[in-house]
Amino acid sequence: xxxxxxxxxxxxxxxxxxxxxxxxxxxxxxxxxxxxxxxxxxxxxxxxxxxxxxxxxxxxxxxxxxxxxxxxxxxxxxxxxxxxxxxxxxxxxxxxxxxxxxxxxxxxxxxxxxxxxxxxxxxxxxxxxxxxxxxxxxxxxxxxxxxxxxxxxxxxxxxxxxxxxxxxxxxxxxxxxxxxxxxxxxxxxxxxxxxxxxxxxxxxxxxxxxxxxxxxxxxxxxxxxxxxxxxxxxxxxxxxxxxxxxxxxxxxxxxxxxxxxxxxxxxxxxxxxxxxx
Length: 277
Fold this sequence. Notes:
Helices cover 67% and strands 0% of the residues. By secondary structure, it is mostly helical. Helix 8 (190-241) runs antiparallel to helix 9 (245-268). Mean pLDDT is 76; it is low at 1-6, 12-29 and 179-184.
């Protein structure tokens, strides 16, 4: 009796759903439950900002934008700390290692720092892409630039103090992103303080060198004008002292040539060279 009833019920179900529709529920063995920490959460940045405005989700757009900016700033702060630590590890431990054991230990520490650096870069790139989708503004794109592999190189200001070509070297853009406040943020510890100190001293030395170069160039402009005028006066005296027509004509030609040089130099260097003493 029970078997006949069950069989009759299955036949009615097949008549209702149809033979090709199959079961409306997936069998239990095929259901794969995704862990909550692995689920991707829907965020407003998944949709264009114009569409969010059309849907009336402007408040959500602003909230995620602020969160993403905070995430990007946190990643950059941690990135600066780890890059500074990496440079100091190279200088203090790796290059001065007295044994292979000490060098291997330092290499492992550097590898750990590099892994953290790559993690911070990935987090920043995700936050940056979301910020640009939420706020496609030129100012935001200029402030939060793309991090290139060259930006992650070890600062040679710390590892190679006496190298050539330091006059044009500079840190990556994210080191000077917040101006003086970023330079004075020494919460990373003693290594970061030492890193900032070395780069600050190098930057001050370059500034003093550039000021010296500017002063020399301004004096050289004045010296050039005076040199041309000296030659003009010299050939003028020779023209007055010459008794032969040919020599006098040649002296006057040279006098006019150096006079033209002096006039052009005065015109080009006007307001740039130092005043005459």
